[in-house]
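Quick log. Single chain, no ligands specified.
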Amino acid sequence: QVQLVELGGGLVQPGGPLRLPCAAPGRTFSSYRMGWFRQVPGKDREFVATINWSGTVTHNADSVKGRFTIPRDNAKNTAFLQMNNLKPEDTAVYYCAADTSRKFGAPSRANSQYDYWGQGTQVTVSS
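-> predicted structure:
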């Protein structure tokens, strides 16, 4: 069983930054590929960003390219979603996800590839 703990959501003004940490206690965290997804009421959960196990390869959704990054610190068993220049349309519940079944996997945009999910954290972008 893998527990993912997300923190850092809240209210932020348009144009502002926000960093979401996702802690995944466990000695094999460094072998997991990680992903971030978001969801608004009435819509499907959508891909935001993904990173491979070593942190050397990342992919972002077109809607967040140039604004969001997905660093990770394997020594601290933590992945992050760094969000800059936030827009009102970024308002959503954000979820981190881990794929523990395929060690050392390449990044994936598909939510079906992830077997553990965080509880979600609300991000609201508004003035």
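The two ends are 40 Å apart (CA to CA).
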